[in-house]
């Protein structure tokens, strides 16, 4: 990880001096370990094309809905930030961020931005309206250098494994290109991914690979939501294309077969997981006749809201069945109402900052799935929530019994230092550390990857250090745990 | 703010010595700033009449449902405390509190009572059954002095702005009287409201005003619940009176016009906000025909429970529309089931300690309102909750996108040091500090106002200090934040 | 309490040195006080028979569903652990725990196991695959000694009062046997239960009783769930037996009379409370005709789901009425969906680790009960939850008003240090310390009793110490509070 001169080396660690000392030692023991990122949204194209980032606005503003949302709340027009592909002035967009920097004080986004600017780009100026232009130019200068091309950064970040998120019909040619360009596969061919102990920068672009691959691995992820949910835009058209592309018949069995075929295609291209984003973690088992009926009604657009919900719930259960069969890890991201502001959606499209969480429950909704597949050794089901109440109440108890269930890392709004600490406190006493997923960065913002993983390592070191000082675990257990959290645990959960 | 000899000057600050030092410095930088109280329940009459408080029971027991409820839970009859206007012995009521003092250990009420007794009244004895009579007499002695008349205290507390809560049909003559007596208007005419840096007492009654007004401002607040909710007692009669008083016709349009007219009246008398207390934050948009139908059915008493709910939900949306039009800040206090104990309500009336929170959700219920008005620059909608789960899950995400939405300060049961700390931790990482409302005391207990604001300043100083020590914000950002939290933020949110 | 050489004497106390010092002093002042355990699941037979524990597996693995669940999640077959009465190798079962020891790091179970091994049994080796056999043999050696017979441990633990949990038709002969063997009754006849200040071991088996009883008191608890809930297995048969055994007629009145008769029987045998485990805290009042109708339908198996729910809800209200009449404290454990995994239930039976909490609300569901009986001085209703959100939102507000309502100690998954701290923080500011129940261990694992109570004493000392250091309570108030929490409070709540 990167340490800026300007940044406190003890940042995010507990204030109490004795605790901080222990936490720092634990953190130091893992800060240089490679990054395993088994779920995220960086496009494969970024690395395949390896073009220089355009400017500070593209890097830090336009594509980061954490940033644009808070500027929007302050009255900034999303269009001025480049959201929705509208023509905009990137320098002006950056100025809008810089002159509103105080809005991000104390936020996760503010912390990451600081880390990216100082840690990755080596900018030492504090961001403000006054320094906006200077920093914009400094960033531009950095980005023009080969050392800041995506692949060089990928290598420098010490990424051992990076998963993208992909449409089931994607041909994954970008992933093929990456393989051809020396990126490893899920088996961790890249010798370069070992990471130097101590966590210093790994040097310039490319690095000297010791193994069969020059770079760490990049793998696709199967994300089938829009083919499973009758309420998704373009569901019927999507399914029709899916059936056509796979040569499947327009029956429920044909549809299942088509999905299975695409999953196999993904697996052949290195995928280790299938990702499901749902409003509610609701599952239901249906017999073949009813499934067929609902499938046809959903395609015809004649299914009512209740039937669409049941179909969706059945497809979540069917997806678990496919994971049992083909081994893809199933990640479930539940509880976000997407596109809350229709006016904004219409003007700027999805992922523009108004996806809002809702109260979520897992115990009853997942029961049909778990009754049927919860004891299957080949199923790995990782549960992500943005409703913190489910950590101690449902997710930890489920993961503390079902061998298939893992506690997903703090996600989205909860991917932040205090929330991470609450997450550990809420889950560990019931389920320990070994039922959690390891850290998942879930990010579109490539430059934020090291900052996010570093944050998790710091927070976990602080949490574990407290347990040591409270006499609850030994120091040597603590050392094992912080290491396992970034190595053996994510590898086991994601079958790497 | 007041510092008693008996009170720890570092109270409520974090224990860790380094953290405490920073927190204390941050606190000291704002402890003497004037109080902005944009939502509360102190009656205007108290200041207009400026009569001496009667005794310790009236000050600390009878009217404070935080106090009477806990005594009631311990088996004390509410009547003996003077609740419900029943004849009672005030000295005996005070003795009941004093002899049950340990019940309040660790509670917010206990802390405030201590602050009021020592900080405001300068009582140095510890409260107990043994000291009850002595303290009662000491309090009586203080209250007999002109320095403890309501206006003198108002001045001494350094109140820059105080909002009352008023019925829409109130003629606001008490507010007129206050204006005549030298109280300022929302524009902050009072030179005396500046507050001396350092936070010492401002001296005796009256003070020497340097500006156009002798005292800080007092403004009414429009609280229309009983005219909007068909389930409220006396709804039909209330609406009839409203229509009669405003000369409006008994149509939905007439009714809306009547409300608008009374809002204008309030605005002319200095009101800056309209306050809405609802069981659930549920909104619905209706066309004119359906609205008319439900209005007539509600008035006639023929609307069923579902229709009454829809009407209520539509009136919340209409109230937002009115705020867009006339600029009144809309505060929404949601999620409390009032008068849980019917027997107690029948004997002692409302606000007698058995209003109990319920699970609350905002994301879906507010959507119709936000779809329609959420992007309007003139709307300020401040969300208050007593369901902590909504902080990180819904309120912070909503306020982090919609320019109209602000995160209300911890309210009611959550207006307490630990709960405030949880509030900051739950909201800041998503929405920062600048989407929060600033502190709101929401109190009927006039003497508790400085203690409540002081508590918020201490807790926020502690929270911000931690972020400094964790390397998440700079010291200079921290200084700006703690100052903004009690100055620019409440002024901007409440359009002062 | 026991202090192992290997265990940190400051364990579970806050890290900050000044806070820790105060917390330690507060803890030391109560660590040696006797244990009051008014709700738990240790069978009376254990003490009545006073047989030696068989081995480490029986003690620490097979019967502890906290332990077996986490091993199961790690892929261990429950049968290999002896769950469900299946033939198994106890040494091998112990090895399975020992070799998976790291899974329990940071969990409440892991902490208790450590405390039991080191504190009670004096094992100084760290548990691991390597030490498994040695420790197994060391445990066996200890268990063979008279000092580790159940009664000797009961005495050594300093248990003043222990409640079991019993079927309403139990003849309580084991309790009779205990009385005959020198165990006290609820009135605390046992002089031996005083506990030596300082908390050292109380010596060998038996002890020298100074009062009328040689040992502390053991009392039964009336647990009627399966006779009240039409959805419980064997409900109709159970009720038929109940009616036959009490000579009651098969009418609703006869049924109520039968329950009342059995409650009287329990009271005569020393019971102080009736315990109710429900999925939801839902109550409803019915007139006699409707109650009779639902009763007959429930018995006949013709009641639909809604009717069964209403009947169950009415019986909860009737149980409160019985408590008003006969004085049995009513404990309510709500919000756990039992036997989530049907396959596991069918193979291994209930209580095998897959009871999973659900979102729970009390405010509305308990209202009919509280409207009718909430102000009755003779009702003590203790509310337990595994949904933490209810602490600040519902339970503390209810207990802060109704004299009948008490806040149950953190239960089940929440019976753990961090969760306990959150519990105090969530409830104290609203309801203080004196509306809480005192600690309840709720355990089947006899050897874990001292560890559990010690944990609560440590956590409470840490919490109270923080309030002292934040200037919120005085040091002398703190000393009173920590003592009351383990003495006067549980005695008052459970009418001991």
Q: How would you describe the overall organization of this protein?
A:
3 copies of one chain form a homotrimer. Chain A has 496 residues and is an alpha/beta fold. The first copy, chain A, is 47% helix and 8% strand. The first copy, chain A, has 21 helices and 10 strands. In chain A, helix 17 (389-399) links the parallel strand 9 and strand 10 (405-407). In chain A, helix 19 packs antiparallel against helix 20. The radius of gyration of chain A is 22 Å and the shape is globular. The first copy, chain A, starts with 16 loop residues before the first helix and ends with a helix. Chains A and B meet through helix 4, helix 6, helix 15, strand 8 and helix 18 of A and helix 16, helix 17, helix 18, helix 19 and helix 20 of B.
Secondary-structure blueprint of this entry?
The structure is a homotrimer of 496-residue chains.
Chain A lengths: L16 H14 L4 E3 L6 H6 L6 H7 L2 H9 L16 H9 L9 H13 L11 H13 L5 H7 L2 E5 L9 H8 L2 E2 L30 E5 L5 H4 L6 H12 L5 H17 L4 E6 L9 H13 L4 H22 L2 E6 L1 E2 L4 H7 L7 E2 L9 H7 L7 E5 L3 H11 L5 E3 L9 H15 L17 H21 L5 H12 L1 H6 L3
Parallel strand pairs in A: 1-2, 2-4, 3-4, 5-6, 6-9, 9-10
Antiparallel strand pairs in A: 7-8
Helix pairs in contact in A: 1-19, 1-20, 3-5, 11-12, 13-14, 17-18, 18-19, 19-20
Key terms for this structure?
globular; 496 residues; four-stranded parallel β-sheet; alpha/beta; homotrimer
Characterize this entry briefly.
Chain A has 496 residues and is of the alpha/beta class.
């Amino acid at each position: 990880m990167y340490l800026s001169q300007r940044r406190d080396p003890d940042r995010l660690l507990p204030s109490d001096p004795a605790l901080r000392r222990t936490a720092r030692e634990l953190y130091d023991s893992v800060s240089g370990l490679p990054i395993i990122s088994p779920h995220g949204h960086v496009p494969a194209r970024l690395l395949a094309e390896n073009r220089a980032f355009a400017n500070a606005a593209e890097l830090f503003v336009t594509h980061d809905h954490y940033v644009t949302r808070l500027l929007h709340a302050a009255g900034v027009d999303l269009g001025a930030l480049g959201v929705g592909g509208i023509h905009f002035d990137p320098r002006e967009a950056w100025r809008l961020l810089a002159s509103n920097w105080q809005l991000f004080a104390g936020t996760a986004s503010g912390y990451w931005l600081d880390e990216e600017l100082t840690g990755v780009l080596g900018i030492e100026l504090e961001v403000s309206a006054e320094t906006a232009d200077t920093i914009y130019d400094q960033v531009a200068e950095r980005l023009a250098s080969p050392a800041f091309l995506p692949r060089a950064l990928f290598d420098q970040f010490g990424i051992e494994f990076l998963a993208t998120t992909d449409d089931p019909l994607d041909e994954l040619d970008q992933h093929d290109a990456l393989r051809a360009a020396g990126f490893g596969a899920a088996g961790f061919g890249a010798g370069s991914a070992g990471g130097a102990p101590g966590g210093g920068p790994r040097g310039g672009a490319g690095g000297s690979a010791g193994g069969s691959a020059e770079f760490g691995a990049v793998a696709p992820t199967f994300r089938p939501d829009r083919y499973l949910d009758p309420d998704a835009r373009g569901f019927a058209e999507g399914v029709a294309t899916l059936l056509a592309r796979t040569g499947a018949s327009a029956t429920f069995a044909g549809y299942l077969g088509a999905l299975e075929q695409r999953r196999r295609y993904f697996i052949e291209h290195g995928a280790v997981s299938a990702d499901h984003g749902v409003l509610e973690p609701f599952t239901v088992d249906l017999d073949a006749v009813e499934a067929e009926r609902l499938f046809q009604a959903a395609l015809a657009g004649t299914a009512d809201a209740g039937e669409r919900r049941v179909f969706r719930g059945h497809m979540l259960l069917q997806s678990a069945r496919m994971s049992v069969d083909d081994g893809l890890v199933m990640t479930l991201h539940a509880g976000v109402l997407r596109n809350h502001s229709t006016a904004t959606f219409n003007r700027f499209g999805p992922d523009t900052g108004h996806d809002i969480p809702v109260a979520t429950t897992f115990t009853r909704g997942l029961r049909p799935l778990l009754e049927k597949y919860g004891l299957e050794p080949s199923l790995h089901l990782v549960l992500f929530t943005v409703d913190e109440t489910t950590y101690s109440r449902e997710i930890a108890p489920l993961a503390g019994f079902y061998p298939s269930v893992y506690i997903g890392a703090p996600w989205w709004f909860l991917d932040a230092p205090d929330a991470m600490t609450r997450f550990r406190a809420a889950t560990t006493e019931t389920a320990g550390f070994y039922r959690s997923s390891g850290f998942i960065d879930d990010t579109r913002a490539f430059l934020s990857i090291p900052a996010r993983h570093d944050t998790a390592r710091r927070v976990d070191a602080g949490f574990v250090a407290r347990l040591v000082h409270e006499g609850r675990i030994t120091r040597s257990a603590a050392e094992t745990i912080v290491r396992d959290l970034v190595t053996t645990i994510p590898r086991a959960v994601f079958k790497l």
